[in-house]
Amino acid sequence: MYPRLEINIKKLRENTKIVSDICHKNNIDVAMVTKVYCAIKDVVRELAKEDINYIADSRIENLKNLKDISLPKILIRIPMLSEVEDVIQYSNISFNSELKTVLELNEAAKRRNIIHKVVVMVDLGDLREGYFDENELLNSIDEILKLSNIKLIGLATNLTCYGAIIPSQENLGRLVNIARNIEQKHNINLEFISGGNSSSLFLLNSDKMPKGITNLRLGEAIALGKETAYGKDIEGANRDGFKLVCEIVEIKEKPSIPIGEIGVDAFGNKPVYEDRGIRKRAIVAIGKQDINIDSISSIDEHIDILGASSDHMILDVTDSINRYDVGDKVQFLLSYGGLMSAATSKYVYKEIIY
Asked: Membrane-crossing residues (predicted)?
């Protein structure tokens, strides 16, 4: 069935091994982030055979689906008050930035007679989640440590996802210093100091990761073989562990400029066209309702993606050495946004290749 997301387990396991080896050589644990491919259980089960330490996801629904996989589960999105019961039941660790929420988690943990582990988020300038004011952070830590059914295990930060702030020795060094101050003040050990996501890998490769960072949360590095600070390929990793395969439903020679007065398209945009004469155009059966068209690229480098409506994507195949016909398949690589949309879309079929 098409359009189809092909998931190559062998290549993804190779990526998982590469990045976990990099981290473990530097005494850093790996939390494998599974959200970009919606934590497909059969995929997670296979990748978890590699040497990773945690499974992490932003949706408690995904972690619930993975409950039979024995690795510790981390909820990396700040919990909603409305989901605290599920957070306690289906995650071993949750990332938090609001004392009110931690208090509710404590009450839910009491009802189940369990200890729930929490990691407190620190905002180092990316301006997404976390305590920005250090005094507010320290005051909340004081209160969290009084709770009977909550165990504070560490601190974490998020960088690049919103404000695009690059991880550095300076900002991650500050995270470590804050952790050390908390340890000294309260005579405790914080075992989990998470220095961000795939954007922090370049610090390891350049030997600039501050001592004291004990964990990274890696999603794109495993799924797409890229570090995300500068968008560079990871040496030896596969970019095509996930591939989008689409079927051609029409192929005809047509002008490169629409004929008539140009208004706005179905999405309210006024398009601009370049006159390249008569071109061979192929239509594949996928559109903006299915995926994020701007986040894919053709594996055939001589194909140009001209655009898409909700249901059709138009390709210029004039310069390709392949003689495409109706029914032929065209393959695409995906960026993070493209993979996320393809995995989430119910209109894109998923095929796991072992």
From this structure: none
